[in-house]
Amino acid sequence: EIKLVTRVEPTFPRGFDTDSGTVRARLQVDARGAVTGVDIIEASPPRVFDRNVRTALQQWRYEPTGESFSTLAEIKFSR
């Protein structure tokens, strides 16, 4: 079982006229637990939260497993 040890929350973007949203992303994680890639696979509304989510998820850290793996993350925004 993979264990998230550091979670950085994305900030709410400025300049958008929306109060909520959801982003689903696939994370590539190396054997040391560092996120090496973030692919946005679904976003509602599209492209509003992507940059902030990508920046935050790249700072996440997982418990080292000794092997690379991928996992999904879902981030919900609400004001």
Describe this structure in words.
This protein has 79 residues and is mainly beta. 10% of the residues lie in helices and 44% in strands. The protein is built from 1 helix and 5 strands, in the order E-E-E-H-E-E. It has a 3-stranded antiparallel sheet, with helices on one face. It is elongated. The N and C termini lie far apart (32 Å).
SS elements, strand count:
5
| Sequence of secondary-structure elements | EEEHEE
In what range is the share of β-strand residues? 35-45%
Poorly predicted sequence stretches spanning 5 or more consecutive residues: none
* Helix content bin: 10-25%
Q: How many helices in DSSP terms? A: 1
- Counting helices, strands and paired strands, the structural category is mainly beta
State the distance separating the first and last CA atoms: 32 Å
Shape: elongated
Strand order of the largest sheet: 3-2-5
Keywords:
79 residues, mainly beta, elongated
Topology:
Blueprint: E1 4-6, E2 20-29, E3 35-44, H1 50-57, E4 61-62, E5 69-78
Antiparallel strand pairs: 1-4, 2-3, 2-5
In short:
The protein is mainly β and 79 residues long. Helices cover 10% and strands 44% of the residues.
